[in-house]
Every structure is written in C-alpha cells, then in structure tokens.
Amino acid sequence: MRLTDAQLAQVWDRGFAVVEGFLDPETLAAAQEAMWDYYPRPDAYFADPQAYPKFAASQFAGLRFFPYVSWALNRLPVYPDLVDAAERFLETQAVEVYKVELWAKYAGAVNYDQPHHRDFGNHTLVVPRTDGFLPQMTTFLLLSDVTELDGPTKLVPLEHTRHLPLTPRQLPMGELFDKEIAATAPAGSLMIYKTDVMHRGSDFTAPGRSRFAMLVDFQAKGYPWRGKMSWPDRGEWKGMTEAMVRMTARERDLFGWPPPGSPYWNAQTLADVAVRYPGMDMAPYEEGVSA
Ligand SMILES: O=C(O)CCC(=O)C(=O)O
Questions:
Q1: Is the CB of residue 198 less than 8 Å from the CB of residue 163?
Q2: What's the pLDDT score for residue 290?
Q3: Among candidates 153, 200, 152, which has minimal Cα distance to 172?
Q4: Domains plus CATH for the chain?
Q5: Residues 193 and 234: beta-carbon distance below 8 Å
Q6: What stretches in the chain show pLDDT beneath 70?
C-alpha cells in the first residue's frame, strides 16, 4: 500500500506512524512461511521452551540478519511501496538500505521490557539534526499480529520529548511510560519512526504469545558517519547471490551495487560479475560499454 502524504507527515510531526495493511497478502504469507527456516513455529517453541535455550540469552537473541536463504524474505527490504516511502520521506532518489534484521520474540524467553531510548546511538557516529536535515527512516514490518499482549513497541510522540537534550539517549526505566503509545497492529502493517523518537520494546503480558518482525532502515547515500551493516561483508552469506540476481538494477542499487552508467562497468567487469552471479541480467549495465 502506497503511503499517503498525511502518513509521512505524521512521521515528521509525531515522530512515528503505523500503517495497517501495508504488505499485500501474498508477500506477507510467503514471508511468514519463510520465517520458519530461522525460527521454531510458536506451537513447537511453547511445547518445549527448554529445547530452544538460545532465545533466553538476551532480548536480542532472536535477531537474524540479511541476507536470508529465501527470496520471500530478501524481497521485503525492496518492497516497492517501502522504497517509495523512503524516497519521499528522505526527499531523494539516492537512498540506501542500511539495516535489515528479522526479529523473533517468544513470551517468557526473557523479559523484553526496555526503558525509553532513541536509536541513533548505533545508527550514526554523531547525532540527528533537530531541524530534520538528513533524517534516517527506521521501520518495522510486522510479520505477526501485535496486540497489547504481544510486546508492542511503545513510542512517545515528539511533542513530549522535543525539549529533551539528545544525549543521554536513554531515560531511566519508567520515565515517560505515561505518555507512550503502543504500536499495535495486524500482521502486514508497517511502523515507521525517526531516530530521535523515544521508544522502547515491551514485554509480553500473556503466556504463549510471540512476535515476529522485519526491521528495514533507509538513509540518503553518501554520509559515511551513518549506517549499521556492511553488505559486501555479507557477500558470501547464503542467499546473497540469489538476492542480487533476483533484484532489479534499481533494487541492487539500494544495497550499494554499481548502477547502470557507473564508470565501474567495462567489458571485464560485465563478464566477471556475470560469472560470479549466474543468471543475472547484465543488460542494464551494458549501455555505453564498448566490447
Ligand atoms: O522490539 C521493539 O519493539 C523495540 C526494540 C527497541 O527499541 C530496541 O531494541 O532498540
């Protein structure tokens, strides 16, 4: 679903927006099925939580990082309406994906409650500009229904925090809990928020519940003090070759791949990249390259 201008304006004004019905049903169903390559289905987990001790190691033990073994997951970060939202929010076509995480949480594995914090600490070496120049766009694609019982993200509208200094990024536990809004929404919804927004993970409030989401973050290209993941570092991870082959030239560009017309492309690189990525359509990169 294409975001409306009003929804994007809400991210600016309030700091976050929740868009229900964002993913189309086919994309959502395929991604949900593909998650079980990484995680136990809730029935299996809750039948014997002791069989999955790794989820008890920390709140972050359920994180799995891009790329994934299936296209059904790898295509989510380049979902056209998500890229469209990023281009419009960041006000440039020169955008990049700088983080992709899949996150599973299971009730009782660990206490998922967090204090309110701003995310910029590990998204930039400096601080966000408070006038909105060069924002980053952080998102959660909900892959399971998130009710009040399911550990929803809780966010504080900017009107309550604009006066607070950017540092320290974290408030004492309990502070601003009276101002927070729970991002409850059905599977397939999108939550967008800015990196200066106070928010927190919350714990499940009933047993036998689970929460699954993919977090995809975007920024304008060209500012090396910002970022989180290095895609070349994951070049040999399972799934990366298929992901790059199946993406369009535009979608690869979101991961830093040289675009059509880049001086990188010559007869040698066209031939050798085709060998590294069997099946890739190299035609977009051939223009202007002499044989
Ligand atoms: O999982 C969530 O709902 C939010 C987590 C969060 O804010 C964090 O770990 O920084």
A1: no
A2: 81
A3: 200
A4: 5-229 (2.60.120.620)
A5: no
A6: none
DSSP states along 190-212: EEEEETTS-EE---BSSTT-EEE
CA-CA distance, 90 to 93, in Å (whole number)? 8
User: Is 62's C-beta closer than 6 angstroms to any atom of ligand 1?
Assistant: no
Separation between Cα atoms, residue 86 and residue 267, nearest integer Å? 33
Record the pTM. 0.97
145 with 189: CB under 8 angstroms?
A: no
pLDDT of residue 288: 87
Q: Is the CB of 70 under 6 A from ligand 1?
A: no
* Residue 103 Cα: closest atom of ligand 1: 1
Mutate to test the pocket of ligand 1, among 153, 198, 210, 211 (most ligand atoms within 8 A of CB): 153
- pLDDT, residue 147, reads 98
Q: State whether the beta carbon of 199 lies less than 6 angstroms from ligand 1.
A: yes
